[in-house]
Amino acid sequence: MEKLINDFSYGLFFWMAIILVILVILLAKFAWKPIVEALNAREEGIANALASAEAARKEMQNLQADNQRILQEARAERDAMIKDARDIREKMIADAKAEAQTQGEKMIEQAKAAIESEKNAAMAELKSQVSGFSLDIAEKILKNELSDKASQTSLVERMLDDVKLN
């Protein structure tokens, strides 16, 4: 260190100081402005890029929120449509069951009426046949009993006795 201090030259120091001042003036006049402008432009570009990135991030969040909302609405609409379809299906099934029940009851009533009608017709025919047979039997019995005079007299007496007892 002593060697440096002993070799110090004022002339060399003066010219170095002048060269340094000229260099700083030249840099300030010609290079400092463009460097500062480039740094400012770069800083502004970075700030714009950050702002754009932030805006894009917010827009993506908004789009995702919109997508979620649209998806939820679509799901709700789908669920409502499915519920409506189920309700319509259940109503159609219930209506078909009710209609089938009504038709079945009508058919049963018609069958009962037809059976009753057939039964009444059969009963009437049976009564008619029974009455015809009864008349035929009575006629044959009366012909047998009334074939001679003594039978006729005894029948009349029996009938008179029955009438007196009642």
UniProtKB/TrEMBL annotation:
Coiled-coil region(s): 46-91
Gene3D superfamilies in the cross-refs: F1F0 ATP synthase subunit B, membrane domain
UniProt keyword Metal-binding, yes or no: no
Known role: F(1)F(0) ATP synthase produces ATP from ADP in the presence of a proton or sodium gradient. F-type ATPases consist of two structural domains, F(1) containing the extramembraneous catalytic core and F(0) containing the membrane proton channel, linked together by a central stalk and a peripheral stalk. During catalysis, ATP synthesis in the catalytic domain of F(1) is coupled via a rotary mechanism of the central stalk subunits to proton translocation.
Keywords per UniProt: ATP synthesis, Cell membrane, CF(0), Coiled coil, Hydrogen ion transport, Ion transport, Membrane, Transmembrane, Transmembrane helix, Transport
This protein's name: ATP synthase subunit b
InterPro entries xref list: ATP_synth_B-like_membr_sf, ATP_synth_b/b'su_bac/chlpt, ATP_synth_F0_bsu_bac, ATP_synthase_B_chain
CDD domains linked: ATP-synt_Fo_b
Family classification: Belongs to the ATPase B chain family.
Subunit structure: F-type ATPases have 2 components, F(1) - the catalytic core - and F(0) - the membrane proton channel. F(1) has five subunits: alpha(3), beta(3), gamma(1), delta(1), epsilon(1). F(0) has three main subunits: a(1), b(2) and c(10-14). The alpha and beta chains form an alternating ring which encloses part of the gamma chain. F(1) is attached to F(0) by a central stalk formed by the gamma and epsilon chains, while a peripheral stalk is formed by the delta and b chains.
Transmembrane segments: 12-32
Family annotation (Pfam families): ATP-synt_B
Subcellular location: Cell membrane; Endomembrane system
Membrane topology (UniProt): Single-pass membrane protein
Main subcellular localisation: membrane
